[in-house]
From TrEMBL:
This is MFS transporter. PANTHER family: 2-NITROIMIDAZOLE TRANSPORTER (PTHR23523:SF2), PTHR23523. It comes from the Bacteria. The chain crosses the membrane at residues 44-66, 73-91, 97-114, 126-146, 152-176, 224-249, 261-281, 288-307, 313-335, 347-368, 380-398. Pfam families: MFS_1 (PF07690). Keywords: Membrane, Transmembrane, Transmembrane helix. It comes from Arthrobacter ginkgonis. Gene3D superfamilies: MFS general substrate transporter like domains (1.20.1250.20). The keyword Membrane applies.
Amino acid sequence: MSSKSIWVLMALILVSINLRPAITTVAGAVGQLEKGLGMDAQLIPLLTALPALAFGVSAPCGPWLARRLGAGRAVAVAMLMLAAALTARVLAPVLMLPGTLLAGVAIMAASVLLPQIIKANQGTGWWTGLCSMSFGLGAALGAGLIQPLQHLWGGSLTWALAVWAIPALLAAVLFLGHGGVRTAPVDSTVFSPASNSVPTEVMTTGAPARSSAYRGLRQQATAWAVMAFFGLQAMLYFAVTSWLAVFLVSKGMTAGDAAGLLAWFSVAGLPASLMAPVLASRPAVLKVMAPGVGVLIAAALFCVLTVGGELQFLMVGVLGVVQSAAFGLGIALVVVRSAGPQAAGRLSAMSQGLGFALASLGPLGAALLHDLTGSWDATFWGLAGISLLLALAGYFAVTGKIVSVGDSGVPARETQSADVGR
């Protein structure tokens, strides 16, 4: 590997690490926001939903920047925007909501371009794997370091949150110096997982053709099932990361220990996020895995709700494993249930655009159930119910017809068996 490739890979890893702390740092300190930052307690549920909502509406921002600046410079701009958002949102309570929304837009703009840069630099599967692992690592660091950083800064929650602007600035500098690779313009249908990246061929079709293709896609039940699976697993992820620490504190755990378990939730799932797509490539495994992961999440949520003491560490780890497996499977379904690159690109845009918008309801719904009942029991039972819906979506996603979109923008005649088990 050349020295330039090493620098580009380092830049990609650093960017990937930056794409979760904006969410998990707030989740790790959500119980302190009212006192530490003077934020209105009634706005906190909305705050937890904003990142997912921003992901759902801002997918075209990255390709738009790349067409004008090149993908590398566009990522650098997104990192600068992220640093500014992380700093601005803690300067005053009134800036917390718009700052978090801007951070979500910056995260999506950067993550949508990572596959293109990996391909432009002829990156191997290890590049994608390292970037995927870095997402989870960033999530764990954001949650796990919030309390130590607050202690380091003399109890200041403001500085403990704002300090994450520094690695974002470093990522921008590294990309401007070594990762500013100009690549061909990208279509807004390129993969945009604010998470793992699955490289596909970039399709450059006109607006009328894209509109016709999307109409054809929306007529296919499997496409809706894949979208539902991705959106429901993301809804569960954002709900859990937003309120798990608060729930653990309500059970008598200290804020520091609760933040540590939230970090453990992310760390425990790192291997699963890599292995799930590999296992999903085997049709017989996929037929069981897709509905099974939803059932396992429901069981893990029940265990987290009911167990206590040292077993909580184990159960939170299990929840992290199955939740990360669902995420990896959500990405894999886009690939294995599509007839080709064009169909995969369209399906990715649909499943992640609509899916993240759906996911934004998770934190809000969890908080609403808690407020209405005064207990976390209803919230966890509600999330378990969503997990069973996830299992149902997984079943239809792997048993329906292959998603296919022809060059003319209408569903193409299928040339392969729709039964994933054959």
